[in-house]
Amino acid sequence: MTRLSELGESHIISRVLGRNPSSTHVIVGPGDDAAVTAPEGRLVSTADMLVENEDFTREWLDWKKLGVKAAAQNLADVCAMGATPHGLLISAAVPDDTDIVCLEALYSGLFDEAERAGTALDCMVPIIGGDLSSSGLIVIAITALGTVGEESAILRSGARPGDSLYLAGTVGRSAAGLDLLFAGARPDTVGPELRSLIDTQLAPQPDYGALRTVGAASAMIDVSDGLSLDLARVAAASGVGIDLDCSLLSDLVDPLLPAAEFVLETRATGGSGDGVGKTEVAATAEDLALSWVLDGGEDHGFAASAPPSAVPGVGWRRIGEIRTGHDVSLDGTPVPASGFSHFGK
Amino acid sequence: MTRLSELGESHIISRVLGRNPSSTHVIVGPGDDAAVTAPEGRLVSTADMLVENEDFTREWLDWKKLGVKAAAQNLADVCAMGATPHGLLISAAVPDDTDIVCLEALYSGLFDEAERAGTALDCMVPIIGGDLSSSGLIVIAITALGTVGEESAILRSGARPGDSLYLAGTVGRSAAGLDLLFAGARPDTVGPELRSLIDTQLAPQPDYGALRTVGAASAMIDVSDGLSLDLARVAAASGVGIDLDCSLLSDLVDPLLPAAEFVLETRATGGSGDGVGKTEVAATAEDLALSWVLDGGEDHGFAASAPPSAVPGVGWRRIGEIRTGHDVSLDGTPVPASGFSHFGK
């Protein structure tokens, strides 16, 4: 084991950035005061951070998956604007007794996910800058940059009554994985079905490729905080109501039933479940699985609205309709916006 | 007192961003998945973070000054490329029992410094995005964006023998302020002279205005880690040696002598000084003051090299010469690169 404190900052940076892909857009990469790049069109930028004990725990920590998750949550935001990723800035604060191998794994996860997005969208996604700092808590703060044509950013505000609502990727799997972890499940103690849910929590895999077939969507959002909350944001920004169709969600809910049964059983038998999310209020596995689908974010599925003339292609499933109003409902019954939010309320 | 945990995330964000200036470059500001802006020319981007216990302590914490410092260290990096600031992305992680008034002070400091840079360089510097998270430790991670003409970025690699070396702003004051804090000095227990050094540590004020008169500089760097280390970076990138002229540094060293005497006296009498930086090896106040000037960063002075045909204007002082070689010297004697570096060595 070689602790970061035994190495110099520049040596560490050259080791973790060894895999950095070259990109014709990068004029000056890491190493000067700032990067210089040549974006084409308008610039799309977003920043998001993962904080130890808030977004993950040391106990579950898989450095490579943490890198995947940190990249995914930022790339998904760029892509949800209809933009093409341009580059990442990575600020990482880690304890100075961290093994260099762990930091290399973190960056390996970042590169893997950036490469996955780049392959799906036919672009290069280099790390163009960042900062490395020592800290008692692990914090990964990322800025993702992208580019979009002058009139082609897809905002939250464009949904119109008569549009249908579509989803690419999944929702609910990451929340199920989190409740499994809180219930004491670990990747090496459960079967492949539950393990894959835990993997979605630890290393979500947004379906970037579906963005190639989104077409003339009227609105789009990265579902990071749960359908109920994120669709309420679309509804508010667009001045519309949104009705989810329960029958169209069953393909998302049904695969979560075994996990819901595991979690409820663990709680019933006084297992190690700490109880987060919806576990404490769900009476049945069906209720719990549905609540994961409605309120669970972090799969980074993409929700988009589109008029009948512009039905999205491969990778998109219809899950509801845009209507007049200002709320989100499920088969006509209002759904409270109870996805994830920092700072309560 | 109103704790963040009693408020909703969106309410908090709207309160802290109330002062956000409008900018014609911003097409979509905070509130969607990502910002959309229209940079002119090439994009300059940099990211840097401030971490509690590493970069500041709760004991010395002044939220507004923390905001100033966080903005300054990122804006200085953008400006040291010869670029014009374009916008900031702010990721802040703070304990959820933080008073909203503290967070408002933090953002007030961010806006103050962004406005100061904007006024100096005749541009708007809005906050275009970011993230707010709860955390046990305070972490402020910023990405600063800027724009520069196609051929006009000023890199570290352009210094040439025969150029002179110039400084805008100061070096050493922030390091003196830090050693004063470690020696037990506090803004309300010392006179105005020492207090202003502590203020430079807590809220550095880069001389952005000097960048208007830098002219055709051959290289430039934000002196964030100390002259000895940052000039060694310029020397390495440019393939040159750099000789500092001790007599030209006296205007920087002499004003630090009272602080050096305070710090050495506190240590001699067994005061509360913890001893950081160079205190433990400096025998005299002159030695200590000179070591602050050579090795102390965080004033965010700008060092630039320029040929005789392009002497920078108002705000710049000559401090040395670019020569052949590959090291940094002071009146011909090698200076070890011993400024600040994370992770030892």
TrEMBL record, chains A, B:
Substrate binds at residues 55, 298, 340. Signal peptide: none annotated. Residues 31-148 form the PurM-like N-terminal domain. Mg(2+) 4 binds at residues 33, 46, 77. It holds the Pfam family AIRS. Belongs to the thiamine-monophosphate kinase family. Catalyzes the ATP-dependent phosphorylation of thiamine-monophosphate (TMP) to form thiamine-pyrophosphate (TPP), the active form of vitamin B1. This is Thiamine-monophosphate kinase. It comes from Brevibacterium sediminis.
